[in-house]
Amino acid sequence: MNLYGLDYSLLDVGFDDPTLIESISSPHRMYRDTRHREIDEEEKNLLKLSSSILREIKSDSTPPKRRHDGLSPLPLGMDWSPPPRNWNGPSTIWPHDFQTGWSYCVTVPSCSIFSESGGSEPVTFYRVQVGLQSPLGVTATREVLRRFSDFLKLSSDLNRSFPKKKLPPAPPKGLLRIKSRAVLEERRCALEDWMTKVLSDMDFSRSAPVACFLELEAAARSSFSESSHQVPNINLCNGDSSSDPLSSHTDGSSSEAFHEKNNTEVHQDCGGSSKSCESVEASDTLASSDLQFPNEALVFLPMEEQQKIKRVKDLESELESTKTSGEESLKQAIFLETERFTNLQRDMEELGRKYGEMEDEKTSLVKENEALRQESDSAKEQLKNLQKFHEESDLKSKSVIKFLSGKVKSLRISQSALQQELDRVTKERTLSEVTTTHNGSDNVTKITDDEWRKMVRDAVISNAIPRKRGNSRMRYDLNTTDDDSPDSSGTVEDDISSRKKL
Q1: Angle between helices 303-439 and 18-44 (to 10 degrees)
Q2: What residues have CB less than 8 Å from 471, skipping those under 6 apart?
Q3: One MF term from GO for this chain (predicted)?
């Protein structure tokens, strides 16, 4: 069993002999139902199975010491070989003995620029030419188109598959997208040298990522398919032995001729990643083989090999349907993603507009808050000044009230004294009048009355002078106007004149 879970030989090809089809149709129906249930799972676990087989091979057997030792897990047990210097079609001479087994080589002869639909930038594809040589020395070639990113992905896959081995560094990726012929030619040469260095290692050349990248299985299958069209007279029948050397199945020699297709299938292989796979068909004429079989050659095909051939055809049809459904799903997913991105972009524009409006509102609110803050600061300053003035006024009023209360007390004391003096004078006058009445002398009474009036007037005047001084002092302390002084003095003088009249 090889890397892909199939046991290939020279007879594992799609011959169109009716006898073969009738012989394998009946037993094939018995396995058809169970096979369909296993196809999807086998395709998903292909790389996992190949890795496990490689680990089992490494653990159960010693590593190969040389190429073409029959231990290669690649289709037909092929091994890498340096490419020939000159290509001469089917009779190309390779730098090794072709009888050792199947060989393949890799070159990057040219590159092409394809323009994709939709007006996008052109894409550069490098033509990777895979040459196959049979044990009979017949050479066939097949080309696949690969982008530069595919080479970088191959490098990363090899690093993951062989973490302990040192892989040659891949050509660097340019910072600028320069599509000049000189740059493309330089990169093509660098990629070809890098592929040669990578395939020079036996483990790398026999790995699954390299086989998927070069599509070695498709190359071998297409070669056998073309050879079956070129040799329609070969009779296929069931048997156990044959005297013809070409019909021996156990001797390991090949008896098939190659003829490569005129149309080369170009695939951009994803290698199990999440990227989409594209198919690009290029009409390039490849080398073919002219070797023919004798008409009387007999080839025996065991039942197991017949079932494998039928299984390969079914897998191919299932793979095509899977690719078609995958492309449709990918297109639908791309459409949905594009629509979602458009809606998201529209929402982002709407949010940007609302954000601008909110920024303008925020700026106006900030200005208003700044104006209100300034007004609040000025109001606080005024309130502070008013509080200070109020405190000063309270202090001044308290001092004035204290002073006035003292003056009122002094005036009340003087008033009581004057009242006592007036009472005393009144009593004395009453006594004098009584005395005068008793004496009966009018002259004496008149004189006495005049004296009493003079005494009272003098007392009132003597009491009015301190009162006037006290009023003047009070007006001065209360910061009254000077116009009030004549009024007060006039009041005092009126009081004095009234007392004089008495």
Answers
A1: 20
A2: 488, 492
A3: phosphatidylinositol binding
